[in-house]
Structures are given as structure tokens and as C-alpha cells.
């Protein structure tokens, strides 16, 4: 059951530029969390809303999160020191569903951390395809090397790994026919391209969607994602979203992981 | 004082609440999410997510922007529609020993009346009339910001309702007391206030509003003093009871709101920070009663001693 836990910080270090890695101790969270879930972290008494951060990996009674400092909340988080405690609500969200066969995980930029937990949780072999803007933005490759059979790195400028985007190595892998599922997290434009390839090669894809969140438990309806719906509902068309054949699902509890063929891109 | 002898119950427009804490509409869904954390029977009441005649998909995201100790939302009344609520959600809520209040929004006066009729027949304890949602174009706040608008809607709902009617007021008006008086003289049984204050935030890099809807409703601790002031003004102007809300986050806020003139207290946005907030508020109010030798909570309402 998700709940509020006061967790001790074990380490909180800068990985690159504006991306930090924080490890907290919580037996409950470590035992309950599944890949694709997130923790909702209170970032100081002066801020009302918690910050949702995906779980990067779990080890014994420790949970690791990798986060980007975007605003004041995550800046506050980056200044916390080992020994201090964090007020955490979690684990939250609908995680990845692990296939029986071989798996490809595709991560883009700051979307790569949850894919490590997915790779760690796989039943069979995992191949990782990780895309970054440039060499100095590359993170977590050693950790992926440890749990994956193969790791492909791509950069937009070719400064390390394959020059281009994740779709290049991904298409070759999908052509081989050896994989039964793909999972991805990253920017919308990358996920959409990955979804196109997976559809072409008829391999099921699970995507982790991101949307600005409020409560994190499904009550406030702010983190809405457009999902296909064939129930033919007669919706009110006077205002807001009026498209036929969709419903607005909650990233926090219905997701963040969705089947790609249900997503309205 | 013996804790067991403390009376937190409130009689509000003829409906008995075991304590004054009522979950504010739009912050508590239909209760299912919070039922994972505690027994909903501990709550005085639940105002369900705003209902409309037909299902609504709401506004395009982003629907939320943080503000200093508050937030803006532009959800836009996403809900499954009144019929699906009665069929799929109400039976679950009815399993709990708490007052259930249906919140309704219409595009037209006729829609308000039709929903009132359906809900009156559906084992609802009260109806809260939303004439103050800032996030929809038709209806909503359009009705709530003019005397003519609130009068027409209130009369139409009261005529069709067989349960007490609460009208939820918008703070986005020049003189809330005159609106409150118009609602009272139109036959409403009670008032609830305040709904959210219209606000806006802009990303200084992209120069775009953070909300896709450009503007949204401000809620949370930031609006608390505005809510206290408006509850006091309205309580001074009308005789019907008041469900006061707006930024209540701790027990002391709830007591303060009662002193300003509220009979029941709505709790909402603070749940996004702490799902257990309403339970803590009830406990803190009980402690206040013990510490200040108050046996009957309802006697606090309107107890503020105004400076002359």
C-alpha cells in the first residue's frame, strides 16, 4: 500500500550539470516499488505541491532516484544532505508489466533512469538503447551495462556512441525479431518515434508518460493524458476537449505507464 | 475536559454532520482514492467532483501551476456525467457513514434543474450548486457573478430539489454579500464559499502561460485570509448557514473560519500535500475544544469579536 514515509537520505550527489542522484533508505518503499512507479516527494515546508520522481533502481532497503533540477522544489531537494529526512508519499502509479521474453528498454535523456529499474526487473535478457543530446549529458551507462546484455548509446551530435537518435539502433534490433516487448521513457517526440517503429515491427510497446501532477493519487485530475476509447461516449462539447473516441486518463494512477497503441500522440 | 463528551456534530440546513469537516468538491474525486488511506466515515461529509449533465473531458493540459503556498488549476470539470455518477460512484460513497453532497454545474438553467431532479431521486443528502467554476466558458462563473444569474439558477434548483440546496459562491465579484443575499432570498438553504480565485502564471522563458487554458483557479493556503474575510462578510449579511472554505490547512484555520461565521468547513487543496490532512484537522479541532473548554463546537460559529 502506498503511504507517507519519512526516509533518511543516504546520498545526494551531482551526476552531471543539473542532474542529481539521491538514495534514500526505506524498507517499505524498496519492497513495494515496481519499475515505472514514482515517489511523490515533499520539497520543503514553503511549497504546497510534492514533486513526482521516477524510481531509478532499488537495492536491499535503498531506493535511488535520478532527477533534474528544474525549479525551486527540485533545487531545494538538491541541497539536502545525507542524514536528513524526506517526507515521501509512495510508491505511486501503474508500473511496467514485465514480458516473459527478451526486452528492449529505450531511454531518452532524463527519461533514462526509470528504464534502469525496468531492466533490473526483467525476466529475460535486456537490451538498452539510450539517447542523449551530447557526450556530456550521458548518464547511468555503467549501471545499464551491469544489468543489460547490450547497451547502445546514441547522441544527437555524435560526440559519443551512434550519431543520431534511438530509432537507428532500435530499428535494427526490432528487425531481428528476437524481442517480445519494448518499454520507453523520454521526451514525447522520441516516444512517438519509438511507437511508430514498434507498430511497424508489431512489437508491443509500453510508454511512461509525463504530465504536470497535483495529488499523485488520482483525485485532482490535473495530470490528464489523452487515451483512445471506443466506448462511444456522448461527451459535452460546449468547452474544453471535445474529440470523439478519447478519454482523459490520469498519469498518476492510470499511468504513468500506458500501452502505446492506446495513446493519442 | 473529557474527550468523549466533546460534541463536534453540526446541524446544517437540517442535515446532521458528525463533525464540521467536509471535503471540497474537485479535490476529493468520488472518495475512492482517499479511501485507500483512511475510513471515509471519519469525515463530516464529502462534496463530490463537479458533475455535469453529460460527461466532460475537461481542458487541455497543463492543468496545474504552483504558486507561493497555493496552486492554479484549470481542470475544466472533467467528470463522467451525472448518470454515471449515480450508477457507478454513489453506491460506493453510500457504504460510508458520511454526508454525501453532489456538486452540479450546468451549461443552461434547464441542465441545473434536470440534474437536481435526478440527484434528488438518487439518495443524495444535499446538492451544492456550482455557479462559480472559473474554468469553463458557458455556465459556471457566468451565472455566479451576477445577481440575475444566481437568482435564476437558485430558484430553478430549489423548485426541483427535494433535498437541501447549497449554492457555492464565486469570490471573483465586487460585492459577495449582495450575491449571497440574492441567493438567500431565492430560497437556498445554505451557502458555500469561496470557490477559487481567478489567477494566471507566465513562463518567462517561453513567454507562454503555464496553463493551457491561460488562466485558472487559485486555491491552497495562499487564499485563506481572503476566504476568512468573505465568510465574515457573508455571515454578517445572511441568516442561512455557511460552508466556509478556501485554504484551510490545519485545525486552527478551521476554528478561525468558524469564528468568522462558517458552520461547516471545507478542506481541499491541502490534501494534495497530505492525504491525511482532514483527519489531522479533526484531531486538532478536538484538541482545541479540550484546551479551551468548549463542549459544543457549533457554538463557535460567528464568535469573532469585531473591533468597533
Could you characterize what this model shows?
The complex is a heterodimer of chains A (265) and B (308). Chain A is 19% helix and 35% strand. Chain A has helices at residues 27-32, 72-78, 113-121, 141-147, 167-175, 188-200, and strands spanning 3-16, 19-25, 38-41, 51-59, 62-68, 85-92, 103-108, 126-132, 150-155, 162-163, 181-185, 205-208, 224-228, 246-250, 257-259. In chain A, α5 (167-175) runs parallel beside α6 (188-200). Chain A has a seven-stranded mixed beta sheet, sandwiched between helices. A six-stranded antiparallel barrel of chain A has the order 1-2-5-4-3-6. In chain A, α4 links the parallel β8 (126-132) and β9 (150-155). In chain B, the strands form three sheets. An eight-stranded parallel barrel of chain B has the order 3-4-7-8-9-10-13-14, surrounded by six helices. Chain B has a four-stranded antiparallel beta sheet with strand order 5-6-12-11, with no helix packed on it. Chain B has a two-stranded antiparallel sheet with strand order 1-2. The longest helix of chain B is centred in the C-terminal third of the chain and has 15 residues, at 277-291. The two termini of chain B are 33 Å apart. Classes of the chains: A alpha/beta (265), B alpha/beta (308).
